[in-house]
Amino acid sequence: MKKLYSFLPALIFLVFLGVMALLLLFSPVRDYSENEKRYLAGRPEVTVSGILEGETQEQLEKFTADQVPGRDFFVGVNAYWNLATGRNGAQDIYHCKQGYLINAPKTYNEKIFTDNLTKFDQFAAQLGVPADLMMVPSTGYLMEEVLPTFHGTYDDDQLYDKAEQILQNTRLVDVRQALLEGKETGQICYRTDHHLTSYGNYLLYRAYQIAQGAPYLSRDAYEVASYDGFYGTTWSGSGYWFTQPDQVEVWDSGIQPTVTLIDGSAAPQVSHSLFFPSHLEEMDKYPVFLDGNHSLVTIQNPNAEGGNLLVIRDSYAHCFSTFLASDYQNIYLVDLRYYRDNLSQFVAEHPVDRVLYLYGVDNLVSDTNSAWLK
Length: 374
Hints:
374 residues, eight-stranded mixed sheet, DHHW, AlgX/AlgJ SGNH hydrolase-like domain-containing protein, two-stranded antiparallel ribbon
């Protein structure tokens, strides 16, 4: 009997492995993880050449990791185990005070940052119109008071200093103080997402308009609607599934512009609203603003007093642009992650009065798509 008990743990483990293998083999293959907001690896294609070159084994490993039964449960167990054992400060996403989930600071790649700003500056000089750069500080920089005791250093201040040295033809609009002061009167950062809240974007919009010496709408000019249940991208990558969701706010000034969404050779989509409410039914509600990522978005508001604005941007501009739309007749939003046409030719066909580069600092130190700027 004692011998039987000595083999029991191994037997239980083997049974567990066998059950998991059978479940993996016969369970339906999931294409997409709602929690992690990413597509999952499918069944590998088994070929002789793939086996000999090791590709099949690599695909099988990814398939097993992505399709393992109870994956969300095990991801959550791992996250909370690391938190309970004091490894919060070593994770890619910090579990912070007041329910915030915040990306750890990215490694400062000086070459990528310098290349990006240099290309921005050269393109502005080439167009010959006034240009501005707005760098949105990281959530960790803006919300330092909620970070865990042990955390990495956020380089936002150093990046601002470096930008001042690099830019010759582009003005740097410093939004740090406006956002930090704004914390006293509202929530500027989401708890479960890396973007600014709608209120935070209103502060960005106001700071930009003030920098232009232009008027801006007051806070009470908007009808604000709040929607519960927003789980953003930091929540999706964290495994902290018990974190309470955010609210997403839609600030509507009442205008009805013509919004055109363009992606490569696909037929353009036209809307007469800045907001796409179907996304409010999803866990990630951020695409309610301009329908999320598109290579080119045009916003036409002929009743506005401002002229034509070219915004070269990342996803931080989605919500921000819903505020700008009240003040500019034509806004052209270009996302270099997806836009592959000649932008100089586009501007020749659609003349602009100003250029705005709007990026989160984390993207400026890691994204290399400014190479497509020509």
